[in-house]
Automatic annotation (TrEMBL), chains A, B:
PANTHER family: TRANSCRIPTIONAL REGULATOR YQJI, TRANSCRIPTIONAL REGULATORY PROTEIN. It comes from Phycicoccus sonneratiae. Pfam families: PadR, Vir_act_alpha_C. InterPro entries: Tscrpt_reg_PadR_C, Tscrpt_reg_PadR_N, WH-like_DNA-bd_sf, WH_DNA-bd_sf. This is PadR family transcriptional regulator. Residues 9-82 form the Transcription regulator PadR N-terminal domain. Residues 95-179 form the Transcription regulator PadR C-terminal domain.
Length: 185, 185
DNA sequence: CAACTCATGTAATGAGTTACATGATTGA
DNA sequence: TCAATCATGTAACTCATTACATGAGTTG
């Protein structure tokens, strides 16, 4: 049974066969919106997936110093991915460094606190804009409304990012108001 | 300079001196809402913080087989924490296994997809309830409105969790409607 | 007397990041 | 000709999880 990263790669390959290099790029975006990996993770994981019979590759005459390998999922790979999607999922621990910092924000003066919240807000607003842009390109596509098309799933996840980032931006505005109320001037 | 975990522990100790065991428990909740660690991470990190002069301990005649050590931040420790709170913060990569699964949900039939979304919704709703309960206990406390009190920061972070979880639950409801619309039956 | 909580640590494993290493083709 | 992109891999290191190990006091 592959790792989470392995399933991320299978998810990418189920949408479109790719080289390791392409997978590493696609892991930055769009998959990077909710899962990231560098190429130094991708290549060994591809080898493990291949050893498990979940992906296979053919060699295309390449442009680098080594042979260029194009990977695609096997029937077993697609089946494993399909099964994993609906498998039991333990509640996920949250890991948010920004919130961890805000939790100790009572130690600093209100001006420094406001500055921090502004920077946090900017980050969320930037992500929000990126999600909106991605969703806009999907808007015209008919497949985005067909539950068996990958574009449908892309639309679901983008909509989720949109809503949580929108909530985060509103939260930051609320915090700024709280800080201003508590310490005016 | 301590790790993120080190700053999490300093944040706990700045609120209340504790033993390693208590810190490990407090890392489950409330800090566990946004950062987690087990006791096997806590003890070595406390030793590192002490070696760096950021915490110190006194020995209280203990109940375990070894001496019970109660830790508190030093002046340097509190200063380091205060500085870290407002320090430069690189944009954080998101890591969300639930969204990663939903991204491949186009591979499964609409009934299985709805079931998955229901389970995701339950998880968010449970967390939302926990946040609401924690916020309710803070509601009566006057310190929760004083920006220099730790309860103020607790209120900020809980409010953030509340808003993002609320958005997530609404997102799940939206997905269920989308799935029902696309595949009625 | 069994189970649970308090209390502290180490060891092994797995996952993730950063750095090292190479080299062809394409476009400015 | 210089830089970027395509393309693949390994090595060192850090961080996190799980398992091992011990033992007193309290509650049912």
């Amino acid at each position: 049974m592959p790792s989470d990263l392995g399933h991320a790669l299978l998810g990418l390959l189920a949408r479109r066969p790719s080289t390791g290099y392409e997978l590493a790029r696609r892991m930055q975006r769009p998959v990077g919106w909710f899962w990231t990996a560098g190429h130094s993770q991708v290549y060994p994981e591809l080898a493990r997936l291949e050893a498990a019979g979940l992906v296979r590759h053919d060699v295309v005459p390449g442009r680098g110093p080594r042979a260029t390998k194009r990977y695609a999922p096997t029937a077993a790979g697609t089946a494993a991915l399909r099964q994993w999607v609906t498998a039991e999922l333990a509640p996920q621990p949250v890991r948010d460094l920004e919130v961890l910092r805000l939790w100790s924000v009572w130690l600093v003066d209100p001006e420094a606190a406001s500055d921090l919240v502004h920077r946090v807000r900017d980050g969320h607003a930037q992500r929000l804009a990126a999600y909106e842009a991605d969703l806009a390109t999907l808007d015209g596509v008919a497949a985005a409304h067909d539950p068996s098309a990958p574009e449908f799933a892309s639309r679901l996840t983008l909509e989720g990012g949109l809503r949580t980032r929108r909530a985060a931006v509103e939260w930051c505005d609320w915090m700024l108001a709280e800080l201003a109320r508590a310490a005016p001037g």
